Amino acid sequence: MNILPTSYVERSYSVEKQTVFELLHSMDNFTNRLIIQWNKIFTEDLGISHILTLGYLDTNGKARPSQIAKELGLTAPTVTHLTNKLVKRQLVTRLFDENDRRIILLEITNEGKGILDQANKDGHKLREEMFMKLTAGEREQLLQIFTKLNET
Q: pTM of the full predicted structure?
């Protein structure tokens, strides 16, 4: 049995929804600012999707474009466009499956690993600068929050 007046419960729910909206909006703004700032300091004429593709290949090894699209939440034509540029820049190579020549696999090159390393260093430096605006206590709280969110 609810002992609070309905209007209080409705207001409380409404405030809770507004707070979640503001939280999501703030997270989106932070992420967008981070990407914009990263694009300004990373001078390789590659976008974040290119780097995510390189990162996926570095972590998972050879992969089909369709697998990359699925894992990164991209469309197949987007991955084709991304990989064409990566192949042209010799950051990724296209390989044919030994058992079925119709299957194309992508593999990161040493040059691609170097670019990925630089992108990660630039991103790490940028995030470090942004998070240093927080106090040590705020950083600890944020770490606990992200840890909790990543557990679900």
A: 0.76
